Amino acid sequence: MLLVATGTEPFAELFTNRTLESKLTFFCARLFRRPDIVVFVNGLPLVVIELKNPADEDATIWSAFNQLQTYKHEIPSLFAYNEILIISDGVEARLGSLTADKEWFLPWRTIEDEEVAPVRTRVS
């Protein structure tokens, strides 16, 4: 896998202590892929976030989930150190682990952590 930095910051700064990067292109097996957001901690890509446009009625939280499945297949080395996957359609956000199926991608908890935030859609 080749990592291509397209941001304005110097490439070396990607591998400082903590980095949130949204302008990276990954090249693997003749494919260029650009996940929406990758969170690096000590140079390791620990979190991958896929976001969908809330104004697009066809873009659902599950299309974000499917996009992550495509990335896992096409750029597997990105997920070697992965801890958390996050998907959102701008209205709802869910998180899961690398091997979690749809039913295990769960909504964020409320700030008080007393109840689960309302869910707009159900897993089919």
Explain what the structure shows.
The chain has one domain. It is built from one helix and nine strands; from the N terminus they run E-E-E-E-E-E-H-E-E-E. The protein has one helix at residues 61-74, and strands spanning 2-5, 18-21, 24-28, 31-33, 37-41, 44-51, 84-88, 93-96, 106-107. Mean pLDDT is 76; it is low at 1-12.
Q: Could you give a quick summary of the protein structure above?
A:
The protein has 124 residues and is mainly beta. It is 11% helix and 32% strand.
List its traits.
6-stranded mixed beta sheet; 124 residues; single chain; 3-stranded antiparallel beta sheet; mainly beta; disordered N terminus
Helix and strand content put the structural class at mainly beta
Mean pLDDT: 76
- The residue fraction in helices comes out at 10-25%
Low-confidence stretches: 1-12
How does the major sheet shape up? Answer: 6 strands, mixed
Order of strands in the sheet with most strands: 2-5-6-7-8-9
What is the rounded Rg? 15 Å
Domain count, please report it: 1
Topology (elements, then pairings):
Blueprint: E1 2-5, E2 18-21, E3 24-28, E4 31-33, E5 37-41, E6 44-51, H1 61-74, E7 84-88, E8 93-96, E9 106-107
Parallel strand pairs: 6-7
Antiparallel strand pairs: 1-3, 2-5, 3-4, 5-6, 7-8, 8-9
